[in-house]
Specification:
It is a single chain. This protein is α+β, with helices and mostly antiparallel strands. Helix content is about 40%, strand content about 15%. The protein contains twelve helices and eleven strands. A hairpin with an 8-residue loop joins strand 6 and strand 7. Helix 6 runs parallel beside helix 8 and helix 11 crosses helix 12. The chain is globular. The N and C termini lie far apart (about 60 Å). The model has no long low-confidence stretch (mean pLDDT about 95).
Amino acid sequence: MSLKDENLYFIGGVVRDEMLGIPSLDTDYCYEGDAIEFAKQKGLNILRENPAFGTVRVLFEDKEIDIASTREEFYPQKGHLPVVSNIGCALEDDLKRRDFTINAMAKRTTDGEVIDILGGIDDIKSKKLRVLHDKSFEDDPTRILRALKFSLRFGFTLDESTARVQKEYLKNINYDMSYHRLKKELVETFNLNSQEAYDRFTSEGIYKLLGKSVLLPECHPDFRNLNYSGRHIWLIYLSFFNLENLELTRAEKRIIEWAERLKTEKQTNNTPIESIIINEIYKEAVS
């Protein structure tokens, strides 16, 4: 039994995935109004509240569920986190703040009615990724990586207008951006372990998001035979780039340092397996 109310909706990816006939990674709920007040009025077991964002986590039938209030957002500083405004706004206004039309649909929990004011259903049918407005990538450049990730996962292509907007943005990138958010999307995209991800990352100029002085690798690595399923797959793919703008962990820095060291030294018992893989790919690329 799911949580139901006439103002409570499934939203975003869960609606998209249902239409695509694939399992959803998450089940997101949105309440048209104040989700925290809704949870209190329903007598739900509240685990955590975040009034600044209008979100609440509840325990329902032994499952933890996140419910977000409808809200609007604006970007006072392009490329950084948006500022939340108008919590409890109309559902349609909440949908308009999202990234792509295929993620801007809602499904009412009571009768299953799908709210699609931006053409998400048609874009799913035509397998297109479309941003909601021409300033979308200026607001959040990580959406370019999200577009790459979604196109790989679902076999979609950018619609003509979105492809144009992406190309224009990559010619004039605002490097005052949140590299923490950029790294998150890089990890999710390249952990798909896809050669196509790397090929498009380079050919479409998406790599330029890494930094103003970042250049294409001089060698041409081939990852098609990468038989590795660890947590650092993304780092193997991106190890040929300058990653100084990313906030690498100590373990991630160690992998890169060892990979460089292996060009002149032999591996030891302390050598990370990822460094060995990177070195082998490098030797193949320059041979």
